[in-house]
Each structure stands twice: as structure tokens, then as C-alpha cells.
Amino acid sequence: xxxxxxxxxxxxxxxxxxxxxxxxxGEGLFGxxxxxxxxxxxxxxxxxxxxxxxxxxxxGTSGHTVRDLKDRWQADVIDRxxxxxxxxxxxxxxxxxxxxxxxxxWHVYKDEYEHTLQSLIAETKPLVNGVVLMTPFYIESNDKxxxxxxxxxxxxxxxxxxxxxxxxxxxxxxxxxxVLEELYASTLAWDRVHPTAAGHMVLAKAFLNKxxxxxxxxxxxxxxxx
Amino acid sequence: xxxxxxxxxxxxxxxxxxxxxxxxxGEGLFGxxxxxxxxxxxxxxxxxxxxxxxxxxxxGTSGHTVRDLKDRWQADVIDRxxxxxxxxxxxxxxxxxxxxxxxxxWHVYKDEYEHTLQSLIAETKPLVNGVVLMTPFYIESNDKxxxxxxxxxxxxxxxxxxxxxxxxxxxxxxxxxxVLEELYASTLAWDRVHPTAAGHMVLAKAFLNKxxxxxxxxxxxxxxxx
Amino acid sequence: xxxxxxxxxxxxxxxxxxxxxxxxxGEGLFGxxxxxxxxxxxxxxxxxxxxxxxxxxxxGTSGHTVRDLKDRWQADVIDRxxxxxxxxxxxxxxxxxxxxxxxxxWHVYKDEYEHTLQSLIAETKPLVNGVVLMTPFYIESNDKxxxxxxxxxxxxxxxxxxxxxxxxxxxxxxxxxxVLEELYASTLAWDRVHPTAAGHMVLAKAFLNKxxxxxxxxxxxxxxxx
Amino acid sequence: xxxxxxxxxxxxxxxxxxxxxxxxxGEGLFGxxxxxxxxxxxxxxxxxxxxxxxxxxxxGTSGHTVRDLKDRWQADVIDRxxxxxxxxxxxxxxxxxxxxxxxxxWHVYKDEYEHTLQSLIAETKPLVNGVVLMTPFYIESNDKxxxxxxxxxxxxxxxxxxxxxxxxxxxxxxxxxxVLEELYASTLAWDRVHPTAAGHMVLAKAFLNKxxxxxxxxxxxxxxxx
Amino acid sequence: xxxxxxxxxxxxxxxxxxxxxxxxxGEGLFGxxxxxxxxxxxxxxxxxxxxxxxxxxxxGTSGHTVRDLKDRWQADVIDRxxxxxxxxxxxxxxxxxxxxxxxxxWHVYKDEYEHTLQSLIAETKPLVNGVVLMTPFYIESNDKxxxxxxxxxxxxxxxxxxxxxxxxxxxxxxxxxxVLEELYASTLAWDRVHPTAAGHMVLAKAFLNKxxxxxxxxxxxxxxxx
Amino acid sequence: xxxxxxxxxxxxxxxxxxxxxxxxxGEGLFGxxxxxxxxxxxxxxxxxxxxxxxxxxxxGTSGHTVRDLKDRWQADVIDRxxxxxxxxxxxxxxxxxxxxxxxxxWHVYKDEYEHTLQSLIAETKPLVNGVVLMTPFYIESNDKxxxxxxxxxxxxxxxxxxxxxxxxxxxxxxxxxxVLEELYASTLAWDRVHPTAAGHMVLAKAFLNKxxxxxxxxxxxxxxxx
Amino acid sequence: xxxxxxxxxxxxxxxxxxxxxxxxxGEGLFGxxxxxxxxxxxxxxxxxxxxxxxxxxxxGTSGHTVRDLKDRWQADVIDRxxxxxxxxxxxxxxxxxxxxxxxxxWHVYKDEYEHTLQSLIAETKPLVNGVVLMTPFYIESNDKxxxxxxxxxxxxxxxxxxxxxxxxxxxxxxxxxxVLEELYASTLAWDRVHPTAAGHMVLAKAFLNKxxxxxxxxxxxxxxxx
Amino acid sequence: xxxxxxxxxxxxxxxxxxxxxxxxxGEGLFGxxxxxxxxxxxxxxxxxxxxxxxxxxxxGTSGHTVRDLKDRWQADVIDRxxxxxxxxxxxxxxxxxxxxxxxxxWHVYKDEYEHTLQSLIAETKPLVNGVVLMTPFYIESNDKxxxxxxxxxxxxxxxxxxxxxxxxxxxxxxxxxxVLEELYASTLAWDRVHPTAAGHMVLAKAFLNKxxxxxxxxxxxxxxxx
Lengths: 226, 226, 226, 226, 226, 226, 226, 226
Hints:
Chain A has helices spanning 15-18, 37-48, 66-76, 91-99, 110-124, 146-165, 172-180, 185-188, 197-210, and strands spanning 8-13, 55-60, 84-88, 130-134, 168-170.
């Protein structure tokens, strides 16, 4: 397990991260972390590693692209001084190219996406203990689908950025592809973008596996294993 | 893993099971399973064992005691023909003795509790592949506390009932006690009864461990383990 | 133009037909026909053929399959004595197989679909001046997609049924395919099922073309053509 | 067809244009164009000319007169850089003279109307590819009616302004008059001002005919014409 | 003044009478009489003749025609045993012929109107001290207007019925015509049917004048006349 | 009749004047004048003297005392340039002395009341055609009642102020006393302060009588007097 | 203190008793006893005599007269088997005579009031340990006021009924009169009927004093008296 | 009784004081004092000592700690010039340490608590007639419970501060402990923090006893004591 006692883990992203989190703090009582994978990660950390007291903060904002993250990076990331930072962005950067194709101002193309992401990570990496970069994803099994193909290209940019900056890398598309072998896309997401509870658990698992989370600890007897 | 392809797993209980599930079906799209441990169990089953197609149904109803379960057992359990049945009941049977002590009609004392639970399980066990009995719990670390002590007695009844009827047994109080060693009760439940997301994950883990759920399957690469 | 003065044209179907129509009548003032293709058809009939006084009735109901239509056919079709009947059903018959695959009671498979549709149309054809059968559709350009492929099979059943009963036939999938050559699916439907205003206009046009609607009448000067 | 690939078409006007459009942008997903003739125009453009990718923007605001348009012209027209501009204004300029006759500050009389409209068009014409001027209208068949007569005078001003500035001109009153030969006014508008869906289709048709929209294109097979 | 101490005066009609009256009683505290002419009549009776203690009851129901009155006449008129009865009905009988011309079941034509009204009045006249018949009206100054002309025919039926049954007769159309000489229709009614507060006062005055109401009583000093 | 063609009549006061009037204008369509005596005055002026086109404005604000009027006098009276001004204030100045006796800051005692009222009227009288001063009132028949006695003292101040400044004076208390001879206070006002519809009509009549309103004009035939 | 361990004390009455109590039970968690004197009595009993475990039930219903109590007496009193019964009724029996004087069906005059109350008490007295009869009251200091005088007569009937049936008697009017010597009526009740929190405390004190409640018990040290 | 005629008594604190009080004033009509112990204190003062006219003001704010009080002390205490001041703060200072243990910024530890409280009291004591310091409390009978133990330490700080500054001191924990001997914690508070009506009465009694309130005054006959 890479996180240690008392560390602060901050997530930033779009609606998939947001999931009705509290504002402006993104932490606290009564479901402040929203209803998505961030809440799952927090619940699992607290249930399995209560002694670590990991502090999870959710800074997702619905509809945001990497361009929007840049505008609020100082306030929502740097000023909050996280020990660990997780970033999952790009869905809307791509989606707007496909659902509102006639409004180009709303699109964030690959060059801007890579450049902006790189500059944010390069600025932040030295200030934190670790950064986890998660790809955006599209819950569509056909990799010839136009939007899926574009999303894969953005995922490749995330991968390059993770390698270039020595970050942990989570391939969420690969995690979903595994499940899509068994289930049709609309079982996991009404609109191929916003996951069901099961889809959010896929994300939480992919993230936790990457940071060395042990599902069954040697000392764990809570399940009364037979 | 004890559940097999295409089986139906039905949960019945009180508000801890209910968690705003859909009515009357307790299954389907858009969060029909509510926001608690039942939704977690379903999400984890679907994320980790998508090929099994386990069908989860939530028949929890807020405020119910075992006396209420008896009234709706035919409609909500027998008629729905589950393959597996999970029961967690008793919170309100005990709680009303402590929060409305002057209204005895609302209390379900130990004799009635044990008798009713036993008769429901005895009737149903032959009709299903398996039954999981989960204790009620009280998120209070002091086992001398009056209500905690009573709850432990009801938990013991559940244990006896599980043994007598050859059911799987989940000691949820034990699962919470483990976490309570590290965290104060109100971190896990505002009122010591309704768990936070972390508390529901404790319940989901305890349940899944008991039915042989493998957190990391030999074929699992979704987390891109390093 | 196949409809004549004073005739009643009744549409029946699922949410794509319903679109928040008034209940129980499905006709009248203040948007009683809903916000979808039925309202478009009515608006175009009234704007272009005001002298005909065609009476349009919307009997769509969200979530319905052909099995549900059968249950309300007497009340919602026969008893209302339409002169013309338009039917577009099948979306949910197929969709439930893909978004809630574990609940087979909610699926209507091909045999039941064809048998039920045939029996409804055979019963009704002699009672009306004309029947228009519209295929269900799936706004997905990849015809190898599993759900699109199934939907195409249901569309083929509609075609066979139209031919067998001498009905007018509208291939809505073909109409959408034409537009999908230019636009990505999510421009036309958030969830590939419920069309945008443009998608509903595609349906209205396909329907009107089939009944001989003339977009520009010899007497039409309303546009002040130059 | 006068519009070409990728052009932006902006509508400005009062409540008849507004129809609950999104604010502040007046374009985008989920019915952002409102529920009136602007949405119809967009839907028909997208359904029939998907390859053109015309971008439609709705800048209508309920209750506005030409005096209000002047105040927001820079922000809502000039700054948005449309390729084509459509203007329909004047209803409230006239209506307030008849429904609140005792509040003269709310009336915009003919001189101010003509002067203001002329100055806005003269300023904007050089900046765009084309301007379409639509008359205000009053859904009343009796042209001796006091308010109808006044509205006709404002319509004549629009016509003069179109001619003087070399704009396309749409006579919406003439389009409604054609339908009013068959239908009584209250079938088309509860208050003789705000059209039903059919009335909005009359407006959309009049507009589209003027810009050279072809209802049935040589390549169109979407209706499966027999 | 024709009403005497302690009498009950019951009004029945459509939305113009209803005006959000209380249900089911149509009398009592807190605006139970609605916001229209019935409330005005009651307020003026109580303010000017407090010693009479006239009990006013409002049985208007929005949307009703004379056909609907017939269905509830026993419960809403006969069983309530009024001393005086006032009836104003016919607006919707006529209006539906003009705003939903294609739905003939919603129209009540002249023969049915006259026959039904006559039979209700003939049945009730012997049971009460007096009956006041008020014409329906249409707030449109042009008596060649199609709907106004029809409404005048229904008013003539009311007049004949009043004469035939020896009832008091109030010509509400004549009362409005007087005001329409000075004010345009939409100053008095947004939709030419539902009056503003001023329009309701016109109705109240016409009614009160007919029953012999004295606006300035010989004993009245409340206005501190100079 | 003292008002002449096209004049503006502005009312200012507290909740009895306000009655849910529109904000900020206090005039216009759709019940902008509220539901109290101001709306009655306007309705009667328009119904009986439509040719005068009197413009009524309601500047009442719930809870206000004369101290509050002073703060908004420039904006709500002077700047709106009325031809006639009507003022009814004092209810809350007195009431707070009786319902919140322990909060002296909320009381406006007699000296301040008289001084403030005098200074507002003296400033405004020269700017308008006429001023009508209406007393505050208390709907309680017992003139020994403590609050009634105080209210009478404030009424006497209004009378003195009217005489000193040559204003029309309306003794609303006297108008209510006349009705209170017949009806118990709670028939006219739930709380002895806010009148029912009948109570507002008492106020409207007292006001109109004072300005020379003729209830039955020589030319009036609207009631079809027999 | 007349009540003993574990007894059930049931209150029945009108809105003054009701105060938004829970339905149908009138007891339980979360303010089930409403916000009035019943809640105060319960709170004081529980705070001062926690060891007695008195169970308080609130069966007040807004708007009720003694005639309404009769209709629900079996269900709401007899079937609930109270040990002690408290009745306060009569406000509406009197009030309707004064606020809706023209609707005599809503009035309950003295004969009916006395007869009904006597018969209910005579039936119930043998079934319970004790009955407390509380007078209705009117928060008006002037005992010559018409409604106050009538209320006093009803209070006298309650007193006679208490004596005749050997019940405890609480003169609530006398309790309020004491306070009215110092405070004006509207400080204690907006409408002279529904008390403020202070007025409800007056009622609670009068009731508790009558049943022998000791405000300061010999064993009480909770106030840390100095 | 320590308070004298016309004095202002101001309470400041957290949600236990707040209880939905009015904002911003915290005094006035219609439940402005909220629903907790402050309202009880006011009701009892007014019911028992109406002649004193004590003015009670509630400045509680939910969620506040002593750190928050410091920020608003000038506006909410000093500027309002109370004669008596009552302070009960500390619940949230402690609670956040136990329900959100991972967010240290939300915790107010003992040093800051004592220092801040002392400085506020020292500043204010000279300006008022008297100060009452009330301890925070935790409705948990087990004094070994971690949060209860901490709360007791904060209570000890309040006691020291009271002694050091010569204030009246109310030990609310002791008052609750007395009741907790008889009743389980959840009977008095759902979450061990926010009291039921009975719990608020415990607080009101403890406060009133400390200021010399006489429950039964020598002149009191309101209860018709036998």
C-alpha cells in the first residue's frame, strides 16, 4: 500500500468524478464525496485501512474539460496541498466533438489536451508524494466506433504523460473492456459515459489495485472467513 | 464462489437494507437497489463476475422488524423465488426498546424475535439454494452499553438460528468491532445505526467474503497490476 | 395525400411516441400531443392541410412493449375508433435484453413479438381505413453492434407483418441510417434511443412521406416564394 | 439553398422566438433552442441537410421590443459573429398599446420602431452573409381589428426596411392569413399571439421556403417513397 | 333589493364563476368564494347590507359546459337548497367549437344547450325564490367575428329561457360591449374569455343592478361624503 | 368625479395596501395591483369610467411604518410623478406596540408618526393634483380596547394632517364601525387587521365616495336595469 | 403527583391540541406530539419524572368541534385504552358562530355542546383512572366582548360537566386572564385563539399544576441551585 | 429572580441554541426564537413573569464553534447591547474530532477553546449585568466514552472560565446525567447531541433555576391549585 498514515488524496476530474459531491469543500460528512468511484475508494480505504486515516477530497466538476481544470488548478489542487493527486479528464474534451459537432469552441483537440495536461502535471508532480493518471474511457466495445477511437487516442496521451512524468497510470478503458466482453455497453452506462454503480466499482478497483490496496489483509477477519 | 450463473440473490431487511431502493420491484435500472450495502454487493458481483449474471433484488423496508417481515414474507420472498436469500433484521426490534421505551407495542422482545425468525427460515430453507443470516449490529464500541448488549443478544439468536438451519452466518457486529478499534462510532454512523458509505462497505465485504467472493481473480487484469 | 377530411389518426407506441402527451386523452389543447414526432406530424398536417381537419391522437406510453400494447389495445385503439392507425413498438422489447440482461421477465423475444403484433394488426385492420407500421430503430451506425443487429431483426418482423396485412410500412432505421452517414449517433440521441428534435423530425418526415404528404402544395404561397 | 457548410444562423426576437431557450448561450444540447419555430428550423436543417452542419443560435427574449433589442445588440448579435441573421420583432411594441393602454412608457410607436430597426440592420448588414427580416403578426383574421391593423402597419415597416437594406423578407402575417381562411384564430393561438405547435410550423415553413430549403431533395430516400 | 335576511344565493357556472373557489363546499373562510365576480358580489353584499347576512355559495367548475352542469345539478344545486340561484354557462359549449374544432365530442351545440338549460331551470324554478340567468359572453367588439356571433346566439337562448321561465335576465355581453367601446378587448381579457379584475367587476355590477342592489343607501355614511 | 382623463393615481401604505402586488412596478398585467382595495378601486374605475383611462399604481409594502415610507418616498412617490396620491399608514406603527411590546425599536410613537407624516405630505402636496389621507384602522368594535384606542389617536393625527395640508380625508375606522354594528370583528378580519374581501370593499367604497365616484352614471345601462 | 408509573395519558381536542402532531398515531419519535401544550406537558413529565415513563398521546384534530369528537371517540379514545384522559374542546363550536355567522350548520350551540360532552364523559369515566376537563378559552381581556362572553358560557358548561362526573377541572380562561392583566391579547395569540409558545406554556402549567406536578422535586439538583 | 423589568437576555451558541431561529434578528413574532430551549426559556418567562417584559434574543448558529463565535461576537453580542448574556458553545469543537477525524482544520482543541472563550468573556463581562456560561454536553451515560470524556474536559474549561470571570455557571452535563440514570441516551437525542423536546426542557430548567426563576410564585393561581 503506497499511501501512508494521515495523507490527503485528492481527485480531480469531470462529472464521472463529481457525482454530486459537496461544494465547495468536496469532503466532510453526509455523502460529501458524491456517489461515484471516489466515494467507493474512500469507503474501501476506511473499511479496510481504518488505522491509516486517509483523507479523501473530491474536486470533480460536471462538464469540465482539461481547459476548465487549468482555470481552477491553483485553487482546487495546489492550494489544497494534497499528498496524492488523481486525475481523470478528457471525456468532455472528446464528447463535445461528437454530440455538438457544430460548436467548435466547445471541443478540446488533442494538441491542446496533451499540452495542457502535461503542463499541469509537470507543475504539480514536485509538490506531491504521488500522482495517479487515469485515462478517460468510452463504454463501447467496438474499437472502430469513431468516438471510441478518438477516446483511445486521448487515453494514449494520458499514458505518454504518465510515463513522461513518472506517474502511476490507470488504464480505465482496459478495465471496462474486460467487463464489456461479458456485458453489453448499456448495462454499464445509459449513455456509454456515466457508469452505473457497477461501472464505478470497476473504476475504484482499477485505482485501488494500482496503489497497492490489499483486498484481504493478513489481519482481516471481518468477513468471518470459513 | 458459491453463487452460480443466472442465480437470483434476494436481500430482505430494514432501513439498512432499504436505502431508498425502488418500489415495488427492488431491482432494475437507475439505482433500483438503493445506496447501501446491497448496491455495493451487486456492483462488486457485476464488476468482478460479469459472466455470472447474478440477479440481485432488494426487499428491505425502512422501520421494519421481524414481525413486519413475517407479514410480507409470502409476497416479498416466497413468491419471488430467489435462489439465495440474505436476511438482516433486528435493529428496530431492539431500537424501539431504547428510543421509545414507553410504547411497548413497538418492541419485539427476544422470544418473539427468535420464534418468528426461526419459523420464517425453516419454511424457506428447503425452497432455496442457500440462506445467509446476518446479525443486526450497533455501532458502539462499548459492549457494556445497554443497547449494544441487547443487540449482541439478538445477534446470538441469529447465530443459533443459522446453526440450527444450516445457513451461512455473517457476524456484522464483529466486522464493525474491528473498525471501531480504530475509529470512533460517529465516524461510521451519525446515530450509531445507519452506516456511512464506509460502514456499508464493511457490510458488503463481510457478506461477500462469506459467499466465497474472490477479490482478485486469477484472470483479473483490470487493475493493470504492476 | 391518403387521409381525407375529418379523419382520426391514432398513434400508439412507447416513450418515443409518448413524449409527455396528455393523459388520458392524448389529444386537445396545450401540447396534448407531447413533444415528439406525433406533435410534428400534427403541426405539419394542420399547417399545410388546415382544410382537412385531421384529428391526431397520441396513445404512446413510456416503457411499453408489444406485450403492454396488447393489454390496452381494446381501450386505447379499438374503443377510440380511429380511421388511421400508426404503430411503432419494439424498442423496449429489445432494449431490456441489453440494459437489464439478468431480468428475463422484462424481455420480449422475437416469437412473442411477432405473434402479438400480428394478432393485434389482424384484429384491427378490418376496422380502419389504413394502418401504418413503423419499425423500431436504434441510432447506432454500426450494424454489427449486438443491439442494432437485434433491432434490425425486429424491424424485419415489422416489415413482414406489414406485407402480410397489407399495411403501409415505414423503415425508420433506414431513415436514420441516411442521417448517420453524416452525423455521429450521439448528435441525434443521448442514449441512442430517444431522439433529439432533429431525430423526431426524421421520423415525422418518414411517416408523412409514406402517407402522400405534399410539402409544397400547388396552392401554397405561405412562404412567399420568390 | 442559400446557407452553406458550417455557417452560423442566429435568430433574435421576443417570446415567440425565445420559447424557453437556454440561457445565456441559446445553443447546445437538450432543447437549448427552445420549443418554437427556431427549434423546428434547426431540426429540419439537421434532418434534411445533415452534411451542412448549420449552427443555429436562439437569442429571443420574452417580452422584448425593438428598444430592448437595441440594448443587447452588441452582445447578442455583433459579438456572436453570425453568418446569417434572422429578426422577428414588434409584437410587444404593438401589444402593450392594446393590453396596457394607460402605461405609455411601455409602448414603442411606429417612428421609434422604424428608426431603431433601420439603424440596427444598417449597422449589421455589412458584417454578415445575409439577413432575413420577418414581420410581426397577429393571429386575427379580421384586418379591420384595431390591433391587427396596427400590426399590419408595423409589418409594412419591416417590408420597407428589408427592401431598403436588401434583406430577405418573410411576411409571417400572410402565411398565417392563409391558414386563418380555414381555422379560427384560437385554434392557432390561445391569445392570438403565441402560436401552437402548428403555428410555429407555419413560421418555420415560411422561413425555410425563403432561404431556398428543399423539402424533398433529389437524394432523399428517407421516407421510403413508394 | 330583492334578497331578504338570511337567504342563500348559489352561483353555478364554469371557470369564470369558479376562479379557484374552495372545494367541495364553495363557501367559508379565506377566499372560499374564489377571486372572481362571485367574490365581488359577496363582498359588496356584506359591505353594503351587513344586516341581511346573505349566504353566498360558489359552485362554478372550470371547463364545464351545460352538459356537465346537468351531471352535478342534483348534488350541487338541488341538494344545497338555495333561496336564489344564478347560472352563467355556455362559454365552453361554444369555445371548444373554435379552439378544438376537430374534436366534436367536446362541442355542445345549440339544440342540446337550449334543451338542457331549459330542463334544468324548469325543474328548479319551483324550488327557489328566484333564478337569475346570465348570458355567456365573448370579449370581442366585432359582432361579425365567428365565435362572437355564435356566442350571441347562445345568449339569445339564455334570454328566451329566462323569459319562458320567468327568471331575471342579465345580458353580460351587453355590459361588456359598453366597456369595449372605450377599451380594446385584450385590456379586459388576455384570451377574450377570462376577465381581468375590471371585467369581473363589470359582471358583478350587472348582476347586482338586476337584483335591486342600491350602491348608495340612504343610511350610508361610510364614505364620509362631503 | 375629481380625477380626469389620463391621470395617474398612486397608493402607498403597508400590507393592507400591498396585498401581493407586483414588484418593483406595482402596475401592469396579471393582477399587478394585488388582491386588496387598490385592485378594487382600479377595477371599479375601469369598469365604470373606461373612457378616463385612470392609471393606478400600488406602492404598498407589507410590514411598513411611516418611518419606512420616509426611506422610500423619493423613489416610490416623488420619482413616479403621480397626479393623485393616496396614503394609508400607521397599522404597524401601532401594532408592534401591542404584539411585540418588548422590542421598542419596532414601535413608532405618536410624535414621530405625526412629524414624519406631516413632513412627507408638506413636501408632496405642491407636486400633485390631490392627496387623499386615509386613517389606519383596527377592526374591533370596542373603542375602550387598548389597541383600538391607540389606533383612534393615530387616526386623529391623520385627520389633523389632512386639515393642515388641505387633503381629502377618509375615515376608514368610521367606515368599518358602521359594518361592525352588524358583524363581529372576526367575520371581517381573522386578526382584526387584514380585512377579508368584504373588508377591502369597505375601504374601496370609502375611498371612491370621497373622490366623487358615481356608482350609477346617468349613461349607465350595463346592468340592464328593469 | 397523580399519575403513576407506566400510565398512558391521552389528550383530545382541536387545533390548539393538534399543533401538527403525527398521524395517525399521535405519539412516537421526532416531534410526534406536535408543537403545542401537549408537547410541553410531555417534555416536562419526561424531564422531571423520567422514572415514571408516562406515555403521552395526542389526538387533537384541527377544526374539530365536540360533534366531530363524538364521531371519532371510539377509535381515538376508547380503543386506545388510556389511563388518563384530557379533553379541551369548544373553540370551534363557538368561533364559527362569529367568523362564519351565515353558515349555521357549522355552529354547535350550547345544548348540543353540553349534551354531547356529557355523554362522552359519562361513557368514558368508568374506563379510566382519571379525566381532566379543560375549558375552551378566548384570549381577549374584555369579558363584555361577544365571543368572549359566549366562550365563558361554554367554559361554565365544562365546569358543570366536570363536577357532575367527578373530573379534574382546568380553567384555562382564568389562567390566561392572569397573564392578560399584563400583556395585550395579540402578544399571546395572533388571532386571539392560537397561542404563541408562551400561551402554550400557560396551558401546560395549568394542566400540570392540576395533576399535582412538582416543579422542583426534593431530589432535583439538575439546575445546580446555588 | 435575578432579571429585572425590561432587560434584554441574549443567547449565543450552536445548533442546539439555533433550532431554526429567525434571521438575522433572532427575535420577534411567529417562532422567531426557534424550537429549542431558548424558546422554552422565553415562554416560561413570559407565562410566569409577564409583568417583567424580559426581551429574549437568540443568536445561535448551527455548526458553529467558539472560533466562529469570535468572528461574529462584535455584531451579534456587543452591538446588540444585551443586559444578560448566556453562552453555550463547544459541541462542534469536540464533535468534529470524532465524526470527521481526518480533517484537523475543523477541530478546535482545548487550548484554543479556552483561550478564545476567556477572551470573549473578559471583553464582555464589564458591559453587561450578568453572564451565564453553560457547558456543552454529550448525551451519553458512559463517562469512559471517548467523546464524552473529551466533552467533560471542555465542560471543565467552561467551569474554570465562569469562576475566573465571576459568571453564573450551568452544568448541563450534570442535568442530563440525572435523567440518563432513568432513560437511555437515544430517548433524549437521536444522535446523542441534538435533544428532543424533553432534552430542551432539561436545558431550560437548568438555566432558569440558576437565574432564580420561581416555578410557583406566591401570587400564582393560574393552575387552579386545589
